[in-house]
Each structure stands twice: as structure tokens, then as C-alpha cells.
Predict the 3D structure of the following.
Amino acid sequence: MVAFTRNLDEEITRRGWELILNGTAVKSKNWQLDLGLNWSTFASYYTKLDPVYSAKKPWVKVGERADHFISRDFQRVPAGKGDQSGSLILNNSGRPIVHGYDVLFGYYDPKFIWGANANLRYKNVSFFLSFDGVNGGLANTRTESYMWQAGVHPNSLSPERALDVATPGSNNYLGQGVKVVSGAATYDANGNILTDTRVFAPNDIKTTYKQYMVDLHNSSAWGGNGSKADTYSRTFFKLREISLSYNVPAKLLHKVAKAASISLIGQNVLLKAKQFKYSDPDGGNEDFADPSTRYLGFKINFTF
Amino acid sequence: MKKIHYILLATISFTIASSCKKFDQLNTNPDVPTSVSPDLLATTVLKSTYRFWNPNPTDWGTAQLWSKHCTNLQNNPNPYQYFSSYYPYGGFGGAQNITILNRMVDFAEGNPAKPSYEGLRLFLKAWYGFSATLDMGDVPYSEAGKAEEGITQPIYDKQADVFVGVLNDLKAAEEKFAVGVNFTGDIMLGGNAAKWRRLCNAMQLRVLQTISKKITPAQKARFAEIVAAGNLMTGNTDNFQLAYLDNTNATYPFYNGEGMRVNLAMSKLMVDALKNVNDRRLFYFGEPAAYKISGGLLENDFAAYEGAPSELSPNLLDLNRAAGKYSLVNKRYASSASRIGDPYIYFTYAEQCFIIAEAIEEGWVAGNAQTYYENGVKAMLDYYRTLPTVIQTNLHGMAITQTYIDNYFTGEAAYKTSGTKTERLQQVWMQRYFIDFFQGGVNISFRNFQRTGYPVFPLDPATSLNSGAPTQVPKRNMYPTDELTKNPVNYQKAVDEQFGGADDVNKTPWWLQ
């Protein structure tokens, strides 16, 4: 077979700052408090483009971020149409329409990530806490997308759904948006509007609740970014670890072991996320990630 | 110490210098062949061209929706059913094969079958160009597949020129096969050069008829010339088709597809048209509707069959499915007993007959249209009568027999010699439409619909998902998005010249204007 390989002259630079503070706040014979704090921010930027082979997209420019989150939005009324601007455009059966072109939703990388830990010791007993978190950045939630599509999302219980089920074949859900009364629009290769003669009116066509939700939360487990409705902020913080340890004094060991300790350890004890609820955003992109798993344990450690 | 450093430095420089010279040799993996026999490349390319893109029951079922042969009854079916595609883009993948085909011909040097391999290369290049231009409009053809010559950004030829190029290459291919040396590695026609020669001629007829709206007098004369020369397909043994094997890599795509079959009905268009001519293929293609059987009708009764309207909303189709109102596709397709299903048909002798029948009606060539119509229908009926993959117990007691074929042409099936030309053409077109039932979305049915408007594909603006123009069927696919990066100048020029700058599925390409 014949394959051609070419190195691009494209250059992406990752820039960022990291701040680390570590210190001992209190130290005496019986007491010791160690504190640690770190904070960092970073992002990738295009610093050079290949004149021929770099992607020709509006978001690929020198100085722009390279971690773009691209997907298909729904068709919406363009700016300059008064109150209607930004509304969803619904089709002849009252269903949202996915736009045929990729648009920039935002960026994958967070604004910053942070971590903090503290270790307090009194005599032989230590208490350790570690928090960390992410602020900003986008991620899809495949799990919730599929929960909506399968009708098992807790929020999917609605009066319209009950009506649809009560009378099979009836349509009871009125989507919020507009319909096209007349006219058409044409687009260039990047999806920018070239001509637009459309006239809109508020939507008055009902569809089934299921159909509308399936359209709104459509995504494919086979890849690609999903719907805007399932694009969440990655912001969260976690109590990553909490532990209580007791160092057994050497005189109690009777030379059986050099050292010994007993600890109670909890990992992933607490998770607060801005938008993620049914899965753990910790992995960055959520493609059927499990819900956050909490570990609680007990550890006995001997050193011989 | 210093001396040692110099020696080390010298050794290193020497190593670098000498390894640079042998860079190519060092990067040649001795365990991988650098040359192969042409038959292996022929098989590879034929397989990649004619194998169904993703052989599984779901995708095979979906392929039946666009051309309205079948209707999906799931309450959230593929939007394809309503003229919307998840991915409304064409592709230039075929052109990549041209490079491999060049190697095939290179490695055939000294092989007596070299002319046949050259013919195959020409035929496939024409096949790719024909498919791509129908799919998108202007496409690279004269400069396609020339990356090795340094053309990585080929110009887009005007669609009219692409058709001319395709026809010329098919003619050249025919001349290569006419030398008549059989070749190996052919999974389609068993390497029979004579069959390939006939196919190259029939293919030219298909291409010429496809551009019937734009055809020039010289091209019509060419059509007549090919028919008169007579090197055309002679029967079902010449059919261009991909047969399946009892092999997990060459299995019928709908093998074990019962899970998909229970949601896949024959379309109302298809069932009504078959009933209209008392065509027993209905019993080969479908199952009776459950509610008709429970209502007392027998499975060998045409009245027990009911197609699903493909334009109905998914919600209602699903409800009617649950009520057993539709004829699902025949159980034999989804069999798990054998991996060998019906062959994937690309070009049949019957289609060739219908192409010529239409041309006679249009006055392109002299002849008896009725004979060609009847020969085409008989060939297709005989195809099913003798098809070894048909399971006799799944034919609802209505197997096609020779007597049935002999008496087929009565009533609506009789050629309407005293009717209008349009009526006769519609008879021909409908029979041509039947050929593609439960095939891999061959697209010929769709292209014929685009060209002739018949059979009319049902469309309800209320359920159409062609959001740009809900009252019409999309006319083309968009160009692959990476063209914007890989070949931006030529891409933009093609879009500007054809469609006023908007690469849109509802714009009309040249051949349909």
C-alpha cells in the first residue's frame, strides 16, 4: 500500500502558571500543622500555522486557543431579529434541527485547577485532609445524554409524557422556539449565513415529549461531541482524601517490628460539581464514566 | 583523555554519516513484502469498493430507507427515513484506491494478463468518478489519484467533463478487456475478461442514460453504436454482483438480523407496486401482515400484504407495528442458518434490458422496447426462481415457476403498447426499481428517481427532516469538510461556480438541471 506522511509546520504552545505553597504553620513537641496549596492555570495556543495543511476554521488562528470544544448546535434565530434572536428554530413537526456545521462551544481546558491539603499531628495521632478541584472548561456528559434518550433521567417525568402515554399516537409537547413561516437561508462552508429570507413565528406544532427530548439530547456513543444540552462545565471540587492515623510508639512494639501505624482512610469522600450530577467529571471528558466512587478503608502498617 | 574524546567524536560522526546513507534501507522492514502479485491488490481494491460499508443488520437495514424500498418501524428510526443524514457528506475515498491500482498494474509487468489489470484500473477509476460526481457535483477526475506525480490539490472538473472522462475510460477499459486474457484475484466476475468487456459496455449505457437530460446527439449515437456492436451482457450469469461466503469476513450483512428485521417493513410504495402487477417477488421479499392473517387471510394471498408508508411519523409507525399492520421483510433474509445470503447486486442483465428499452422509447436507438422489457422482467424473475440462497419454505407457497414467468405479462404487467410513452416508461422504471429491493442502497433507484421522478418517493413536509427544503428530497451530498483544508482553492471555486458559494444538499447539480 502507499501512504503519504507529512509533518505539519503547525506549532502549538502550552503556556501556564503554577503556584505551589508548602509550609509548616505550627511546630512543637506535641503539635504540628503542615499546609500545602497549589494552583495552576494553563492552555494551548497556536503559535504558528501551516499555510497549506492547517485546518481552515475560524477558530484556528495564531494566538487562539488550540483546545477548542467543537460540536453541532441547534439551529437558532440569528442576531438582529428582535426577541426571536437566539430561539430554537423548530421544524414542521415541532422538533429542533441540528445545524449542519460545527461551531465553537468553548474550550476543554479549565480556567484553573487547584489543590489544598493539611496535616495536623498531635503526639502520635495525625489527621490529614486533601481537597482539589477544577474551575471552568467544558465536557460532555454521555451518561446523562443516554439517560434522556432512554427515558430514565429523573427530570424526564413530565405531564406531557404522561399524556403521550395515556393516548398513544397523540402529540402533547410544545417545544419552546419558532417555526419558519417562509423563506430560506444559505450558508458558506463554515456555516456563516450568506442569504436569509426566513420569516419566523412562534412554534405551535406539538410533538411527543420523548421525540423532543431524544432530539435535544442526541449524541452517539460511537464518538463525537454531543448536544449543547449535555455540554457541562467541568467545575467541581472534591475532598480527595481524609485520614486519621495513629503511630504506635516504639516501646509498645517490643522489637517485633521497627514501626507500625493504624489508619482510617477515606478517599473521594465528597464531590460537589457545578453541573455534573450522575457521573464523575474528574476524568475530563465523560464518556459513560461511572458515578463517583467513595472508598472507605482501614489500614494497619508494619515495617520490619 | 583528550585523545579519547577525539576518537569518540570521530566514531560518532562516522556512525551518523554512514547511517544517513543507509537510511532508506534501515527503514525497510525485512519482514514485510515490498512487492506483491497483482491479483492480491485486485482483490483488496475490489473488496474495499464493493463490500457493504459496514456489514451488520442495522446498517444494512438503514441502507434500504433512502430509496423507499423499506420503512423502519422503530419509534426513533435513523433520520435517513425522512431524508436527513447524520453525515450529509460525500467522499473521495475511491481516488485513494487509484494509487493502489497503479501498483497493481506495475506489478503485472510481464504478466500476460496485464491488459486486463489495466482494464480493471480504468473501470474502477470510472466507477469512482461516476459515483462521486452523482453524489456531489463537480469533482476531481482528470487529476484524481495523481498524488505520486505531485498533484495533491487536484482541480475539480466540471460535471459534464467528468461524465465525458468516465465514458472515455470505460471505452478504454473495454478495449483492454477485449484482448481477452482472464486474470486472477477477481471476486466479482471470476476474472473472466469477456464478462468484464460486456460490463464495460453496459456501464457506458448506464452512464449515458443517467445524463439523459443533458445528452448530446453524439452521445446518443454512441449509445446506439454500443447496442449495435452487441458486446453486451447476455444473461444472469453476467450479472455484476458480490456473492457472500460461509466465512466470518465475507458474511451476508443481514445474517442473524432478526432483531432488525422485526422493525423493518416493506414500504407501501414497494408492496402496492408489486401487487399491481401480481408479482410473486412479494412473497420472496416480505411476510404477510400479522393482523391480516389473524383476520382470516392466507399467507399466499396478495391481499394479506400491506406496506408501511415511509413518510408516516415514527410514533404512528411504531404503534401500527405493535398492532401487526405491516408486512415485515422476509424471514429468510435474517436467517441464522447460513452466512450466505442473497448476493449484493450492482448491475444486472435485467437492468441493461431496461436501459435499452427506455432508450428505444426515447428514440435513441432502433429496436423493440417490449422485447427488452419482457426479457428484463423474465431475467429478474428467473434470477429469483433459481437463486440458491432462497429458502423455499419461506416463500409462503408462492414460489416463482417457469409457468408463472411465461404467464406474467397480463393485465398491468403487459407492456402498454397501445398506451402512452410515459405509461410504458413508468412500467420500465418500476421494474428497474424492483431490482434494488433489499440491496445495499445501490443508489441507482435513487438516481433514477432524481432523473425521472418515478416512482414517486413519498414525502410529507410535516415529517421531512430535510430542514432546508422540507417539500423536496435532497439532491446531493456536500463535499467532505476536509477539502476546505486539503484543497481549499479548488473546493471554493467549485462551490462558487455551481451553487453560488453555498455547499448545500438542496442545490441542483448540472445533470439534474
About this structure: The radius of gyration of chain B is 26 Å. Chain B touches chain A at residues 75-76, 86, 88, 99-100, 103, 147-148, 313-316, 319, 461-465, 467-470, 478, 481, 484-486, 488, 491-492, 495, 500-504 (CB under 8 Å).
